[in-house]
Write a structure and sequence with these properties.
The chain contains 41 helices and 27 strands. By secondary structure, it is α/β, with parallel strands linked by helices. It has an eleven-stranded parallel beta sheet with strand order 13-14-15-16-18-20-21-22-23-25-27, with helices on one face. A seven-stranded mixed beta sheet has the order 4-3-9-5-8-7-6. Helix 38 (759-767) links the parallel strand 13 (754-756) and strand 14 (773-777). Helix 4 packs across helix 5 (82-94). The protein is flat. The N and C termini lie far apart (126 Å).
Length: 989
């Protein structure tokens, strides 16, 4: 019989009070005085103050047994054993007084263990009982213990004593553990201490960028990585399962920041061209991971590891890469075994082909032995086939070339890292205006080279672009690998140059930038007999593959296709080969093709002085603005040149640059983007020439936005109003935010208004210092306008045009200094009564129904030339109390009112009104009653209106300007005679 079954036969509400009598009255407090309160002091049949004797305990047990037998159902044991069972139960209950524990310890034991100890405390109690009686006795004992423990937990002192006991036990346990740690240090404690030192070492060791292969005499060759690092983009081609109803898309391009490559995949093979930033990314991951502390990075350059006969096991990782720290025994295995490692294996392409399969087996063995870690392997695109590790779960990503914005960010961060901010702006201008230089700066390596050489030469790039390309080629073809400690290259620098320039010239002649791999192999095969050092390296296929893998200039954008990583290298090497082979006539004959511009410039750089002069004369002989300017651009590369030829080029180009007028500027812009790097100023230019330069640059923004921006930003502090208006007016041709930062936010705002057409321009306005005069053209609501104005209180003039979303004007009340407001072509009904009372000048043109105009009592001028109003008198719509000084009324304005009520505004000094056939003598009378009216403009009349049937006396009007309708045939002289004592101004016929 289980205790629960027995409890069902005996009501707990009757039994609990009986069992409670076994214990003394509850006492407050935690029982901390003297010593813990034992059970012997809690039971009521022990101690000095007994409330229950042994006889009473036996009676209590007898009642429990009797009630059980009297409950419904079959008796649990024979009735003749009732007395013996009651005595046995009493003996067990009396055994509570012999237990050496307190109530907290009893509860911790549980009811079954407490019952077992009571049975042990009275072992003779079951002697002579039947098996059913013994079973009932055991069940009754457990059931009684349930109630006893429930009673203990309800005592007021129980919770306090429980907390005290737990606290004492925890303190004792902590003391024992601390003593154990002191005597025997745990292995993970040593690991933790080492990891702290190792992570600090990794963060310091890799927190720098180094450019190999260039000579820097007065500049550092290392810069802090954390300052100069630029996040690049990586892409992957992945399969995508089409959703129901969608067209099947077998592949899609996934784009993500390169440093996030391991966030969604634990295994990544990252491919990138030479200098694309693979090693820098490895360093960045190592540094950031070390500082985060969530994983343990291992930077493993394969070019270092393969020097040994065998690739290292985890225990030898640090030794293999020259780390001076000695880890605890087994540490690396514990890290990788726990899945805490970030293993960065760099430069698969930098080891011999025979070692790559060995590296693959080594890497895969590590991945299988230590799952759960993160693994990154870097390589150039052509080092291994596309699916080299796909079967092992490696995701393939490719680093993309830097965008223009990336280049700008890189240059700024590089100069911050090198602490050379004074050179930054000039270099950015050069990168924007010099197209061939911009095409060269498409990866971190080349950007770093350009920055370093520019700084080394105190803000000047090498004299002529040829020296820059020579430095870049030397770095890529030989020195970079050698100085990074790699094995000797298979092809010499000169051999590589010879083969590469033949490939480049073939591409230049074909007018293409890609060629079939078979065509390239044929070119190399024909060249090998004359390139001895290359001939000894194998057949044409082997040599071409070596060029692809190590030159850093060739790449394979698709299967079976080759191209140069930079078009500028193709043009440079093609021009070099053409000059060596004496093909200057071929080059000169292609001068009319804009694709040959850079080839011609590089040919001038490579040519001898006499060849240069002949080539430049061929360009001048064409007598076109573009080729004349191309000859001028070539002078940069002509170190030695016949002075007469140089003078002729400069004289001819001087007639074109700088442009002296807007017409000259437009003609100059037709010469193309080449013009941008030749535009001068602002120093030494007249205001007209400065304006012409800004017009030319603005027009060329369609083709070369960055180059045009670089020119325009030089004029941002120019004082001439026309120049500043040109700079403001060309905003829409550029990136809104970039142009605002580079140009607009530096302008003198006097005499200027800023036109905002797009949401991007609105966002840029919010980041600029305040403009006093703003025009919003397009669907901009009042809330939009207010939201983009950081300081509404600074706006004095506001024009809103073509806005279909302008519905409410109450948001404009925030413009507390607004004095002039123009509403143009806004189709929704507008309530003008909510406008700020600061408005003094209001112009409304072809808007929908207006209400609230009569409430604008602060107006000093009002233009309603193209706006209709309602009513029979002007005072029905216009504000009668406004101190109007100038008023413009159109044909639609006065269609129903005429000039009735006009004399209300006695403050008028200027009135411009369009004459209608309905005007009569009463309207003339309104005009005559205006005491201050000095200027009257009458437009649109045809001459036969009754309005002009007789002479008019306007004694207070000093000037009357008459404009007839375009198709009217009237005698203006006759009309003028109608106005006596007034100066009548007639327009020229």
């Amino acid at each position: 019989m289980e205790p629960a079954v027995l409890g069902g036969k005996l009501a707990s509400s009757l039994v609990a009070p009986l069992l409670k009598k076994l214990f003394v009255t509850d006492q407050p407090g935690a029982g901390l005085v003297d010593r813990p309160v034992r059970l012997t002091r809690l039971v009521s049949f022990r101690g000095e103050q007994r409330t229950l004797g042994e006889k009473e305990v036996r009676g209590l047990a007898g009642r429990l047994v009797a009630d059980s037998l009297d409950s419904p159902g079959e008796p649990a044991f024979p009735r003749d054993e009732e007395t013996a069972v009651a005595d046995a139960l009493a003996a067990r209950l009396l055994a509570l007084g012999d237990l050496d524990m307190d109530d907290v310890q009893a509860v911790r034991l549980g009811h079954r263990e407490l019952a077992r100890r009571l049975r042990c405390g009275a072992p003779a109690a079951t002697t002579g009982l039947s098996s059913d009686a013994r079973y009932f006795l055991d069940s009754a004992t457990e059931w009684a213990c349930l109630h006893i423990l429930e009673f203990f937990t309800r005592r007021s002192a129980f919770v306090a004593r429980t907390l005290v006991a737990q606290t004492r036990g925890q303190a004792e346990l902590i003391a024992k553990v601390d003593e154990l740690i002191t005597r025997v240090p745990r292995p993970d404690a040593r690991d933790t201490d080492f990891e702290r030192r190792y992570l600090r070492y990794v963060a310091e060791q890799h927190n720098r960028i180094t450019i190999y292969g260039i000579d820097l005499r007065d500049s550092p060759d290392r810069w802090p990585l954390e300052v100069a690092y630029l996040s690049l983009e990586a892409t992957a081609e992945e399969e995508r399962t089409a959703l129901p109803g969608e067209h099947a898309e077998p592949e899609r391009t996934v784009r993500l920041p390169a440093e996030d490559a391991l966030l969604t995949h634990d295994r990544v093979l990252l491919r990138g061209d030479a200098g694309s930033g693979k090693t820098t990314l490895v360093q960045w991951l190592a540094v950031t991971t070390s500082r985060d502390g969530d994983r343990i990075p291992y930077v493993l350059p394969l070019r270092t590891l393969v020097r040994a006969d065998t690739l290292p096991a985890p225990a030898a990782f640090l030794t293999a890469v020259g780390c001076p720290l000695a880890p605890p025994e087994g540490w690396a295995e514990r890290v990788l075994g726990a899945g805490r490692g970030l293993v960065l294996v760099d430069g698969l392409d930098e080891i011999p082909a025979a070692d790559r399969h060995r590296a693959r087996y080594w890497l895969l063995a590590l991945v299988r032995a230590f799952p759960g870690n993160r693994w990154l392997l870097t390589s150039r695109p052509t080092a291994v086939r596309p699916d080299w590790l796909a079967a092992e779960g490696f995701r393939e990503l490719a680093l993309t070339p830097m965008r223009r914005a990336d280049v700008t960010t890189f240059v700024r961060r590089w100069h911050a890292a090198a602490r050379a901010p004074e050179y930054e702006a000039d270099l950015l201008d050069a990168l924007r205006t010099k197209r061939d230089l911009a095409r060269l700066a498409t990866n971190p390596l080349m950007c770093g080279l350009i920055c370093a050489l520019h700084r080394e030469r105190r803000g000047y790039l090498p004299t002529g672009r040829k020296e820059l390309y020579d430095a870049a080629l030397t770095m890529l073809l030989a020195r970079r690998d050698r100085e990074r400690g790699m094995a000797a290259v298979e092809l010499s620098e000169e051999a590589q140059l010879e083969l590469l320039q033949r490939l480049a010239y073939a591409l230049v002649l074909s007018g293409r930038t890609e060629m079939e791999a078979g065509t390239a192999e044929g070119i190399v095969e024909r060249a090998l007999p004359s390139v001895a050092s290359a001939a000894g390296q194998g057949d044409a296929s082997t040599v071409l593959r070596a060029l692809l893998l190590r030159s850093g200039l060739l790449r394979q954008p698709a299967e079976g296709v080759l191209d140069f990583v930079h078009r500028t290298f193709q043009d440079y090497l093609g021009a070099r080969y053409a000059v060596e082979e004496g093909h200057l006539d071929v080059i000169a004959g292609r001068a009319g093709d804009t694709q040959w511009e850079d080839v011609i410039r590089m040919a001038v750089a490579h040519a001898r002085p006499g060849e240069r002069a002949a080539l430049l004369r061929r360009l001048l002989a064409q007598d076109t603005p573009r080729l004349t300017l191309l000859a001028l651009a070539c002078l940069e590369h002509a170190t030695a040149l016949d002075p007469a030829v140089r003078a002729e080029v400069e004289t001819r180009a001087g007639a074109l640059i700088p442009p002296a007028s807007t017409e000259d500027a437009k003609a100059l812009a037709e010469a193309g983007p080449l013009v941008l790097e030749l535009l001068p100023g602002p120093e030494g230019l007249t205001d007209a020439e400065a304006h012409g330069v800004t017009v030319t640059a603005s027009l060329l923004a369609e083709h070369e936005q960055d180059g045009a921006l670089a020119v325009l930003r030089r004029f941002r502090e120019h004082a001439d109003l026309d120049v500043r208006r040109q700079l403001v007016g060309t905003w829409e041709r550029f990136d809104a935010r970039g142009y605002a930062v580079e140009v607009l936010d530096h302008l003198d705002r006097s005499g200027l208004h800023l036109t905002c057409r797009t949401s991007e321009q609105r966002a840029a306005v919010s980041a600029m210092r305040p403009w006093r005069d703003l025009l919003f053209d397009g669907p901009h609501s009042a809330a939009d306008i207010l939201g983009c104005t950081a300081e509404p209180g600074a706006v004095e003039r506001l024009r809103i045009r073509n806005s279909s979303t302008l519905v409410r004007l109450d948001e404009l009340s925030a413009f507390t200094a607004l004095r002039r407001l123009s509403l143009i072509f806004c189709p929704s009904p507008l309530d003008l009564s909510v406008l700020p009372r600061t408005i003094e000048h209001l112009s409304v043109t072809r808007c929908a129904e207006l209400t609230g105009l009569r409430d604008m009592g602060s107006l000093q001028s009002l233009d309603l030339t193209w706006q209709q109003i309602s009513g029979t008198r002007l005072t029905d719509s216009l504000p009668p109390t406004a101190p109007l000084e100038a008023l413009w009324l159109g044909r639609g304005t006065t269609g129903t009112t005429g000039l009735r009520g006009l004399s209300t505004w006695s403050t008028l000094t200027l009135l411009d009104v369009e004459v209608t056939a309905s005007f009569d003598a009463g309207d003339w009378a309104e005009l005559a009653r205006l005491p201050r009216l000095a200027h009257l403009v009458l437009t649109g009349f045809r001459g036969d209106e009754p309005f002009f049937s007789q002479p008019v006396a306007l004694p207070n009007v000093g000037n009357v300007l008459l404009h007839a309708a375009p198709d009217a045939h009237v005698d203006l002289v006759c009309l003028a005679s109608l106005f006596s004592d007034t100066n009548v101004i007639l327009p020229k016929p």
